[in-house]
Amino acid sequence: MIEELLRQDRELLRAKINSETAKIPWLELQRFFAAGRVLLVAPGLDLVDVAYALQQDDIDQVKRWADSAQITPVPDDLARAWVSDEASLWTVVVKPWVLVQPTA
Question: Which of 5, 34, 57, 99 has the greatest count of CB atoms below 10 A from its CB?
Answer without folding.
Answer: 99
